[in-house]
């Protein structure tokens, strides 16, 4: 039996539609326009595409989009000064500094300079602590997108065995916290995990976020499990061009899993949709309004 494909592109479109509805109501009922500022330092080609798409989708949802594109010679002090300006700007409800930053910049310092209430990436240490202790926080976009898809597919996740393969601060760790919040039994696996295939085989939910192309084959997957593939790896093709693959070997996993996200078109599109959702949430919180339903963790 082949798995159900979880269509992240379609799901992201439905999230963006909800966001646009909330934005229209905020404008009409409260005279508010949520504003998102994105800071890009340097010329990383993939980051340029992501930032362009963020700006485009922000505007399409009816929000204010501000972009700051800085050369890779920009000093840490200049970036920190820009963050301070954005923190103080009442028209900006969300601030995102695109990662990776150039090597001479301390990314932690920059992220922790963002007002936690405007930290729509959920990377600020205050938001990390709030999420880790089950309190209201800004939730990182990629894990939030994964959670939305899992909830839509399963309803309740309570009691399920989940394994998160990968322990990064921006995906693995917050994903594990969110699954724990749903009352899953959560294992965080990584490169040093003993007998990784056996650990993955026990899971009803597998979130692959390890950054290694097609590392998880179908025979590691428990029959019927739900597989969420966060990996976005560019690999060479025979014709000299390249293609994107996930951390899961899709062709073998699709024969075993109950449901699976493809790459591309799975988790990736949800990342930007959830950024828009977080910006609306930040705007509502800043103005003492109720949280937008269906857009938060
Ligand atoms: N400050 C941040 N930096 C980065 C984040 C982040 O969440 N915050 N995440 C990634 C990049 N990223 C968003 O910034 C992102 C990655 C991938 C996609 C996406 O839609 N992927 C498509 C494929 C796109 C392609 O063809 O290359 C897909 O999977 O279908 C969106 C956003 C690192 N930096």
Salient structural properties:
Rossmann fold; six-stranded parallel β-sheet; methenyltetrahydrofolate cyclohydrolase activity; globular; binds ligand LMY7XDAE; 16% strand; 297 residues; 11 strands; alpha/beta; 10 helices
Provide a brief overview of the structure.
The protein has 297 residues and is of the alpha/beta class. Helix content is 40%, strand content 16%. Helix 1 runs parallel beside helix 10, helix 6 (141-154) packs parallel to helix 7 and helix 6 (141-154) crosses helix 10.
Describe what you observe in this structure:
The chain has 297 residues and is α/β, with parallel strands linked by helices. It has 10 helices and 11 strands. The protein has helices at residues 8-30, 45-60, 76-88, 107-111, 125-132, 141-154, 172-181, 196-201, 250-253, 267-286; strands at 4-5, 35-41, 64-70, 94-97, 161-165, 185-189, 205-208, 226-229, 233-236, 242-245, 259-260. Strands 1-11-8-7-5-6 form a 6-stranded parallel beta sheet. Strands 3-2-4 form a 3-stranded parallel beta sheet, with helices on both faces. The model has no long low-confidence stretch (mean pLDDT 98). It binds the ligand Nc1nc2c(c(=O)[nH]1)N[C@@H](CN(C=O)c1ccc(C(=O)N[C@@H](CCC(=O)O)C(=O)O)cc1)CN2. The ligand Nc1nc2c(c(=O)[nH]1)N[C@@H](CN(C=O)c1ccc(C(=O)N[C@@H](CCC(=O)O)C(=O)O)cc1)CN2 binds at residues 50, 96-99, 121, 141-142, 232, 244, 263-265, 268-269, 271-272.
């Amino acid at each position: 039996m082949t798995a159900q494909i979880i269509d992240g592109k379609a799901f992201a479109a439905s999230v963006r539609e909800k966001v646009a509805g909330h934005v229209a109501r905020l404008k009409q009922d409260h005279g508010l326009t949520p504003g998102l500022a994105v800071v890009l330092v340097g010329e990383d080609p993939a980051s340029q595409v992501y930032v362009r798409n963020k700006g485009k989708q922000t505007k399409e949802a009816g929000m204010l989009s501000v972009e700051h594109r800085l050369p890779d010679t920009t000093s840490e002090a200049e970036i920190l000064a820009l963050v301070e300006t954005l923190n103080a700007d009442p028209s900006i409800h969300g601030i995102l500094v695109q990662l990776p930053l150039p090597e001479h910049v301390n990314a932690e310092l920059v992220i922790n300079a963002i007002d936690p209430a405007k930290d729509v990436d959920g990377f600020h240490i205050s938001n990390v602590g709030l999420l880790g202790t089950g309190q209201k926080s800004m939730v990182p976009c990629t894990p939030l997108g994964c959670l939305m898809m899992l909830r839509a597919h399963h309803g309740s996740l309570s009691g399920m065995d989940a394994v998160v393969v990968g322990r990064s601060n921006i995906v693995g760790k917050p994903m594990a916290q969110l699954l724990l919040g749903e009352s899953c039994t959560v294992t965080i696996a990584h490169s040093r995990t003993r007998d990784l295939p056996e650990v993955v085989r026990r899971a009803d939910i597998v979130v692959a976020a390890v950054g290694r192309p097609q590392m998880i084959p179908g025979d590691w997957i428990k029959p019927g499990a739900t597989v969420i593939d966060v990996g976005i790896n560019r690999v060479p093709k025979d014709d000299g061009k390249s293609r994107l693959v996930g951390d899961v070997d899709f062709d073998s996993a699709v024969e075993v899993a109950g449901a699976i996200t493809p790459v591309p078109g799975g988790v990736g599109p949800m990342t930007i949709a959830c950024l828009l959702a977080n910006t609306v949430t930040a705007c509502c919180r800043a103005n003492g309004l109720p949280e937008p339903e269906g857009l938060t963790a």
